[in-house]
Amino acid sequence: MIWTLLIGVCFFTAVGSAWDAAAAKTSVGGHVMAAVVGVVIGAACAWSMWRVGEAAGGRASKLQPESRQRWYIRGIYASSLFWIFLAAVLGRWAADELLKLLA
């Protein structure tokens, strides 16, 4: 359940950071383009985060000592911070570059 929440945070972080890139200097069309870019980047980051979680979770369930499973799962949760940060940076950067091209 918490992994699903983190995937949602990853998605909406990309959308929010792309929207923020358009906030200061664009019209309605710029905001729409930034939102589309944010949704695409957010969906890509959320999907990859989900796939990595599925693969790593399946691998963690095969580990024998329960303490090793716990550490593996903790590492997976810690990696979500990387995905969320990456989604924010990519969303902001992609929206900024697109808006520069359109301006």
Short description:
This protein has 103 residues and is mainly α.
List the helices and strands and how they pair.
Layout: H1 2-22, H2 28-61, H3 66-102
Helix content: over 70%
Uncertain runs are none
- Specify the biggest β-sheet: none
Instruction: Please state roughly what percent of the residues sit in beta strands, choosing from under 5%, 5-15%, 15-25%, 25-35%, 35-45% or over 45%.
Output: under 5%
Radius of gyration, whole Å? 17 Å
N- and C-termini, Cα separation: 42 Å
Shape field: rod-shaped
How many β-strands, per DSSP? 0
- Please write the string of helix (H) and strand (E) elements: HHH
The chain-level structural class is mainly alpha
Mean pLDDT: 88
How many structural units, i.e. domains? 1
Number of helical segments with 4 or more residues: 3
